[in-house]
Amino acid sequence: MMCSGRASLAATFFCGFILIAVSAQEARADGLIYENIGGVSVLYDSSTGTTWTQDGDISGETFTYQDANAWAAGLTLGGESWELPTVAQFTSLFTDLDPFGPPGTESNKYGASVAFGLGPNDFALNVETNYWTNSDQVDFNFFYGYGGTQPDTNLSSAWAVEAPEPSSLLLVVASLIAIAVFRGLRPGASRP
User: Which of 61, 76, 136, 168 is deepest in the core (most CB within 10 A)?
Assistant: First the structure.
Protein backbone atom coordinates (compact mmCIF):
# COMPACT_ATOMS: atom_id res chain seq x y z
CA MET A 1 0.00 0.00 0.00
CA MET A 2 1.39 3.37 -0.97
CA CYS A 3 1.36 6.29 1.45
CA SER A 4 -0.59 9.34 0.48
CA GLY A 5 1.21 12.68 0.37
CA ARG A 6 -0.57 13.70 3.56
CA ALA A 7 0.54 10.53 5.40
CA SER A 8 4.19 10.91 4.35
CA LEU A 9 4.15 14.53 5.49
CA ALA A 10 2.79 13.35 8.86
CA ALA A 11 5.57 10.74 9.08
CA THR A 12 8.16 13.45 8.34
CA PHE A 13 6.83 15.66 11.12
CA PHE A 14 6.63 12.68 13.49
CA CYS A 15 10.33 11.96 12.87
CA GLY A 16 11.09 15.63 13.51
CA PHE A 17 9.12 15.50 16.76
CA ILE A 18 11.14 12.47 17.90
CA LEU A 19 14.40 14.32 17.15
CA ILE A 20 13.22 17.34 19.15
CA ALA A 21 12.19 15.12 22.07
CA VAL A 22 15.59 13.43 22.12
CA SER A 23 17.36 16.81 22.01
CA ALA A 24 15.17 18.13 24.83
CA GLN A 25 16.47 15.44 27.18
CA GLU A 26 19.61 17.53 27.53
CA ALA A 27 17.68 20.67 28.53
CA ARG A 28 18.44 22.00 32.00
CA ALA A 29 17.05 24.56 34.39
CA ASP A 30 18.37 28.12 34.18
CA GLY A 31 21.57 28.85 36.08
CA LEU A 32 25.09 27.54 36.51
CA ILE A 33 25.89 23.86 36.89
CA TYR A 34 29.28 22.44 37.86
CA GLU A 35 30.46 19.54 35.68
CA ASN A 36 33.64 17.53 35.36
CA ILE A 37 34.08 16.47 31.75
CA GLY A 38 37.06 14.27 31.02
CA GLY A 39 38.91 15.55 34.08
CA VAL A 40 38.22 19.20 33.23
CA SER A 41 36.20 21.25 35.73
CA VAL A 42 33.69 23.42 33.89
CA LEU A 43 30.63 25.54 34.60
CA TYR A 44 27.62 25.13 32.33
CA ASP A 45 25.38 28.18 32.02
CA SER A 46 22.02 26.78 30.97
CA SER A 47 20.64 30.27 30.36
CA THR A 48 22.98 30.79 27.40
CA GLY A 49 24.12 27.22 26.67
CA THR A 50 27.69 28.30 27.44
CA THR A 51 30.37 26.07 28.97
CA TRP A 52 33.04 27.99 30.90
CA THR A 53 36.29 26.82 32.41
CA GLN A 54 35.75 26.76 36.19
CA ASP A 55 39.01 28.67 36.66
CA GLY A 56 38.61 32.24 35.41
CA ASP A 57 42.38 32.65 35.25
CA ILE A 58 43.41 29.25 33.97
CA SER A 59 46.26 30.80 31.97
CA GLY A 60 47.65 32.81 34.89
CA GLU A 61 48.49 35.59 32.41
CA THR A 62 47.17 38.86 31.05
CA PHE A 63 46.94 39.45 27.30
CA THR A 64 46.43 42.03 24.60
CA TYR A 65 43.18 41.48 22.69
CA GLN A 66 44.89 39.62 19.81
CA ASP A 67 46.93 37.45 22.18
CA ALA A 68 43.80 36.62 24.22
CA ASN A 69 42.01 35.43 21.07
CA ALA A 70 44.99 33.31 20.05
CA TRP A 71 45.27 31.82 23.56
CA ALA A 72 41.57 30.87 23.69
CA ALA A 73 41.60 29.43 20.15
CA GLY A 74 44.67 27.32 21.03
CA LEU A 75 43.15 25.92 24.22
CA THR A 76 42.16 22.23 23.91
CA LEU A 77 40.78 21.25 27.32
CA GLY A 78 38.75 18.07 27.28
CA GLY A 79 39.28 17.71 23.53
CA GLU A 80 37.00 20.72 22.89
CA SER A 81 37.58 23.97 21.03
CA TRP A 82 37.48 27.18 23.06
CA GLU A 83 37.05 30.91 22.38
CA LEU A 84 36.51 34.24 24.13
CA PRO A 85 32.95 34.87 25.38
CA THR A 86 30.51 37.59 24.33
CA VAL A 87 29.35 40.40 26.61
CA ALA A 88 25.94 38.65 26.81
CA GLN A 89 27.60 35.42 28.01
CA PHE A 90 29.61 37.35 30.61
CA THR A 91 26.47 39.19 31.77
CA SER A 92 24.65 35.89 32.29
CA LEU A 93 27.59 34.47 34.27
CA PHE A 94 27.82 37.67 36.33
CA THR A 95 24.10 37.46 37.16
CA ASP A 96 24.43 33.86 38.43
CA LEU A 97 27.41 34.51 40.72
CA ASP A 98 26.95 35.41 44.41
CA PRO A 99 25.82 37.98 45.44
CA PHE A 100 23.08 37.15 42.95
CA GLY A 101 21.64 39.73 40.64
CA PRO A 102 22.14 41.45 37.31
CA PRO A 103 24.52 44.36 36.74
CA GLY A 104 23.43 47.43 38.65
CA THR A 105 21.90 45.49 41.58
CA GLU A 106 25.03 43.81 42.90
CA SER A 107 28.67 44.27 42.08
CA ASN A 108 32.15 43.22 43.10
CA LYS A 109 31.90 39.58 42.01
CA TYR A 110 35.57 38.76 41.73
CA GLY A 111 38.12 36.98 43.87
CA ALA A 112 39.79 33.63 44.49
CA SER A 113 36.46 31.78 44.86
CA VAL A 114 33.02 33.16 43.93
CA ALA A 115 30.03 30.94 44.79
CA PHE A 116 26.91 30.31 42.71
CA GLY A 117 25.23 27.51 44.69
CA LEU A 118 25.42 25.27 47.73
CA GLY A 119 27.18 22.26 46.18
CA PRO A 120 30.77 21.39 47.07
CA ASN A 121 32.00 22.54 43.63
CA ASP A 122 29.52 25.38 43.04
CA PHE A 123 32.03 28.19 42.63
CA ALA A 124 34.12 29.94 40.02
CA LEU A 125 37.83 30.16 40.75
CA ASN A 126 40.18 33.11 40.32
CA VAL A 127 37.64 35.58 38.95
CA GLU A 128 39.62 38.62 37.81
CA THR A 129 38.32 42.19 37.52
CA ASN A 130 38.64 42.64 33.72
CA TYR A 131 38.35 40.18 30.83
CA TRP A 132 38.54 40.44 27.08
CA THR A 133 35.38 39.55 25.15
CA ASN A 134 35.23 38.22 21.59
CA SER A 135 34.64 41.76 20.29
CA ASP A 136 37.48 44.06 19.29
CA GLN A 137 38.23 46.69 21.99
CA VAL A 138 35.47 45.39 24.30
CA ASP A 139 36.14 44.08 27.80
CA PHE A 140 33.91 42.92 30.66
CA ASN A 141 34.34 44.28 34.18
CA PHE A 142 33.45 42.03 37.14
CA PHE A 143 33.39 44.95 39.55
CA TYR A 144 30.61 46.81 37.72
CA GLY A 145 29.12 43.96 35.70
CA TYR A 146 29.22 45.71 32.34
CA GLY A 147 31.10 45.57 29.07
CA GLY A 148 33.38 48.50 28.36
CA THR A 149 35.91 49.67 25.82
CA GLN A 150 39.67 49.75 25.97
CA PRO A 151 42.49 49.78 23.43
CA ASP A 152 43.45 46.35 22.06
CA THR A 153 46.99 46.89 23.31
CA ASN A 154 45.93 47.03 26.99
CA LEU A 155 46.46 43.93 29.10
CA SER A 156 43.45 42.04 30.51
CA SER A 157 42.66 38.51 31.59
CA ALA A 158 41.05 35.94 29.29
CA TRP A 159 38.34 33.44 30.31
CA ALA A 160 37.56 30.71 27.83
CA VAL A 161 34.18 29.32 26.79
CA GLU A 162 33.61 26.20 24.73
CA ALA A 163 33.12 27.02 21.07
CA PRO A 164 29.49 26.30 20.14
CA GLU A 165 28.42 23.26 18.21
CA PRO A 166 25.62 23.45 15.65
CA SER A 167 22.36 24.06 17.47
CA SER A 168 19.85 21.27 17.97
CA LEU A 169 17.26 23.23 16.03
CA LEU A 170 19.58 23.42 13.03
CA LEU A 171 20.12 19.65 13.23
CA VAL A 172 16.36 19.04 13.42
CA VAL A 173 15.68 21.24 10.39
CA ALA A 174 18.46 19.55 8.42
CA SER A 175 17.06 16.13 9.39
CA LEU A 176 13.56 17.10 8.28
CA ILE A 177 14.87 18.33 4.94
CA ALA A 178 16.88 15.13 4.49
CA ILE A 179 13.83 12.98 5.27
CA ALA A 180 11.68 14.96 2.84
CA VAL A 181 14.29 14.70 0.08
CA PHE A 182 14.84 11.00 0.74
CA ARG A 183 11.11 10.30 0.57
CA GLY A 184 10.91 12.21 -2.72
CA LEU A 185 13.82 10.31 -4.32
CA ARG A 186 12.81 6.74 -3.46
CA PRO A 187 11.65 4.66 -6.41
CA GLY A 188 7.93 4.08 -6.15
CA ALA A 189 7.37 6.84 -3.60
CA SER A 190 4.03 8.51 -4.06
CA ARG A 191 3.95 12.09 -5.13
CA PRO A 192 1.04 14.36 -4.25
Answer: 168
